[in-house]
Amino acid sequence: MASKARLLVHGGAGNILPANANEHATRPALLAALQAGWGVLQQGGAALEAAQTAVVVLEDAGVFTAGKGAVQDTNGNVSLDAALMNGVDQRAGAVACVPWLRNPILAARLVLDQTKHVLMVGGGATDFLRFQQAAFEARDYFSPAQNAVVKQGTVGAVALDNSGGLAAATSTGGTAAKLPGRVGDSPLIGAGTYANQTCAVSATGQGEFFIRSVFAHRVAVAIEHGMSVNDATASALAEVARLGGEGGAIVIDAGGNACALFNTKGMYRGVI
Q1: Nearest-CA neighbor of 119 among 221, 110, 127, 45?
Q2: Residue 233 a catalytic site member
Q3: How far apart are CA 200 and CA 235, in angstroms?
Q4: 259 φ/ψ sector (left φ>0, alpha ψ -120 to 50, else beta)
Q5: Residue 151 in contact with residue 264, Cβ under 8 Å?
Q6: Annotated catalytic residue: which of 154, 175, 193, 264?
Q7: In 122-263, where does DSSP find H-type helix?
Q8: Is the pTM of this model over 0.85?
Q9: Is residue 265 a contact partner of residue 18, using CB atoms and an 8 Å limit?
Q10: CA distances (Å), 32 to each of 54, 55, 148, 218, in order?
Q11: What would the pLDDT profile of 14-63 be if each residue is shown by its tens digit?
């Protein structure tokens, strides 16, 4: 039987042109993420594991504004957000405004696996994650040289496994010069991240507009009502644009139909 597995990743949408000077750094990172996640799927692993594995690679790459490449807020600090969701049972985990995390997506997984909660934030989340022995880094790990590589570089992955399971994962270090305490759409289930038995969605862009339009859930509802993956995503992006925002998303459904759409000049993306 042929494999039905499929994996998509993104590394942010924004003022990205085809011949962008950052391509020499971002392309290898995207490829490495695809290969890592694909390895999980080819070994019979679940979509959730594949999406998480791909995002860890992107967080560690340092060329996107997630994980190592996270940007500083107006106080010069780094705080990180992430979420993942398993479409099979619609369980989810997320963290927001947690400083100096090495891999926020692994922190989100700890919330999913070790608590009854979905979203943990700030000091309470930090205490919980330290108790769970999550990896934190010193300030110099998040090097300033990495911060300027990609201005809109949220990362994400959506996966379909050989059992038909779907999952989504998204991680971000926020936007440049954000106010301390700002949270975008990435860790908010139904805004920047969503998965159920019908589809999986990971978004990137100007998070406030994706929150206001409940973007990811909007895509899922449209697909559930018979709209194609491409049309559902395009319609939801049109609502983001109507509100004044821009960005993009990767989406896959249970049949393996997928798209990577954006209303910006470009979006770092890949599929395997």
Answers
A1: 110
A2: no
A3: 16
A4: beta
A5: no
A6: 154
A7: 122-131, 144-147, 207-212, 215-224, 229-243
A8: yes
A9: no
A10: 8, 10, 21, 30
A11: 877 655 556 678 899 999 999 999 999 999 999 999 999 999 999 999 99
